[in-house]
Amino acid sequence: MPNNKNANKMKYLPVYFLLFVVAGLPGTRLPCAASQGQEPIICKSTIIRNIHDLEKIQNCTIIAGHVKLVKFELTPQMLASLPSLRLEEITDYLLVYRVHGLDSLERIFPKLLVIRGVRLLYEKYSLVLFENRNLENIGLVSLLRVLRGSIRIESNPSLCFAHTINWVTILGNHTKEFHYVLKNNKPPNYCPLCYGPNQEHHQQCWSLGKPQRQILGEYNGNQCSADCPSQKCNKKGKCCSGRCLTSCSDDNCGYCTSLISGKKCVKDCIPPRARAFGRQCVLDCSQYGLLRLGVHCVEKCPKMYETIVQNGKPRSCSLSCNGNFTIKSSEDLEGFADCTTLQGSLTLELTDFKNTNIEDLDKAFGNLSEITGYLKITRSPSLVSLHFLRNLHTIGGKFLIDNLYALYVVDNHYLEDLWNTNQRVAISKGRIYFHLNARLCYEKIAQLGQQLKESNISIADVSRNSNGELLSCDNVISELKVTTEAINANEARIVIDFLPPEALVPLIGYVYFYREAPKRNISKYNRHGCGQDSWFMDTTSSKQRRHVLRHLKPYTQYAYFVKTLTITSYHYHVDATSEIQYFRTAPGRPGPLAKIYYRPVSPTEIEIHWWPPRNPNGIISKYLLKYDVAEENHTSVAIPNKLFGNADNCHCPKMDAELSGPTPLDKDYYHPEKIVYDEGLSNFIYVSKPKNLSRVVKTEDPKEYFLRIQEEQMNNSKKEQDDRKEDFEITTLPTLCNTSHPSTSFKQENNCVEREELAYDHEIAGDRHSFTLTGLQPLTMYRVALRACVDGLANGCGPETILWAETVSKRLGAILESLKLTTSSGDMNKLFR
Length: 833
Prior knowledge:
- The protein is α/β, with parallel strands linked by helices and 833 residues long.
- It has five domains: 38-211, 24 nucleotide stem-loop, u2 snrnp hairpin iv. U2 a', Chain A; 228-300, Hormone Receptor, Insulin-like Growth Factor Receptor 1, Chain A, domain 2 (Hormone Receptor, Insulin-like Growth Factor Receptor 1, Chain A domain 2, Ribbon), CATH 2.10.220; 321-466, Receptor L-domain (24 nucleotide stem-loop, u2 snrnp hairpin iv. U2 a', Chain A, Alpha-Beta Horseshoe), CATH 3.80.20.20; 485-584, Sandwich (Immunoglobulin-like); 590-649 and 726-833, Immunoglobulin-like.
- 14% of the residues lie in helices and 27% in strands.
- Strands 1, 2, 3, 4, 5, 6, 7, 8 and 9 form a nine-stranded parallel β-sheet that branches. Strands 22, 23, 24, 25, 26, 27, 28 and 29 form an eight-stranded parallel β-sheet that branches. A five-stranded antiparallel β-sheet has the order 40-46-45-39-43, with no helix packed on it.
- Strand 37 (593-602) and strand 38 form a beta hairpin.
- It is flat, with a radius of gyration of 37 Å.
- 31% of the residues are buried.
């Protein structure tokens, strides 16, 4: 029997050896960083469409920009003569699109260590491999890290080994912001497995015999100290900087995940050094053909800056805020953030709704303190105030509109306020002109008269009849007081303080604005751009002071405010609003896992990987994993969970009035015969008492009468605003019942639920996204079920996501273990490092 086993092993050995040789055609020597021995050769962005384009960057070690390989085909002869690049770093992104005939990127990029993602493709991706029909493996054998941006590898029909890479490690565990997508490539079941000389090196690989390179934690068997950041140290056991990507000596790093300053990794460049290419700190930008702009080196000076020439060469950029500027959208705001004095005039005409963000105005003009010419604001419906000009103190009036006006504000429908509280803007020369501002009260404009130095306000320039006509400037209702009364995972009940009786006369109802707000930085003056600012709106034609916001997302912070909806009259339109407030919905059960897959490690081990739920609905505290031997054979796929009949996701349709009994409009609703009978019968029984015309009538004190009428009006007013509380009930979060097997009545009375008994084999911390199952049977199919659980919720575990995973056989495991590379273990360790 032993002889037969050896014979079987030898039968498969030539096949695997041949595959290993083919996969290893390009050299496997890993690069040293250019900064360790020689000065790097930096080149600019390049688009490669043929071999000649490759030859142009053959000696470049760093591409300061992007690399695009697009739409060209390689013949076998061209493939044999393909130049191997020295490239170690790309600062922006790498795109490989429809390059046919290329089997592995190792032929072109054998030394590529890092993609920084300073600028991203489509503002999202740093590595994209798309529609390359002959690509058999990715082959970026030296790649350690993609520092910023997502990865997309899609529609490469011959591509294997895409699932054998630990992309989470390459992304630096930044999976909350950036992701990887592997889609429509060759199915992993039709691809070979990784293997190597020992257990340590065959878990992740780029291709056969090409294990994934790791950021090493030890050298020559010397384990790093536990105090070392990220478990990195040099050959002497001395800790490396936490920003080191590759090996380090006593005073430098091979490659940095941050910025390089001399031989050290730093977080920011310290003057007089400036940041170049998003990767290094330099003293002289011009040595790289760049211009100095503050602490940055740039290719050209941005808007509002002019190029400074020294000794006949462009050296730096200097701020030049000169001219007359018209702002119509956010695209016109470039460069204004650095201007403190504008030598000229400024016109705001924000007519481009789709491309205008009010928050951009705040960033652009937050430092502006003086305008030497005029300020014109016209036809800007998205403006509610001029608070974004928070540091403006002078309008010089050196240039005037029609030789008269320094401040010109016309036709701004939603403008309600001018400067910030206690802000004073002096107008050195010229007059003001305000018309067709329907929500700007005349009294606020009149306050500007104190800031004019040359003339007073005239009726022709500012009129009560064309400013503030849609507001009650006498403050019938100045501000609504609102609070959040009750909250659950999908609903929030808002309650408004009682309004006085006189305020109910013009009142029709309320308008409720709300939106998601991850941070509490929503500005009140951007609320009217509801379309582009993502405000949702609920309108009620009722004077009830309560309202329920529905269909909210669990465990999400929202901003909201309320406005009155009133009768329109030209000079009497009460329009009150509340301040913007915030609330967070309660947590809910998490959804199914976004993605789950496995990798057989050995005949007795399977490694499970997963992505958190797309809808966590709270803070994931743990994962519950259960596994057992499958009774039937299944395909190794994850089965998505569809929640049917989930009460939290269902909304009952409104009952049809025609099917719910007679209505007041129905002919027989009032039963007129019965009414006549009842009224006639009562006349026989009850006889009204004759009036006593001679009795004395007691007169009421006028003061008491006034107070009584006032109290009655107030009570009637409150009743009108608060007489249907039952219409605004929302479910409250249940707690766990404190008894075992509670009855239905007990659960209803105490608003509690029975604890779910979930069977599981392993409880995994919520911040982990992988787990290794051990002690399994060889060549056996297992059913693996994994679910996420959130904090702060009774029975807060979500649905199971199912994975069918199979271990490899002992025979295959023995064959893989018997394949030893001719290189000794010591040489192999050096090779991988």
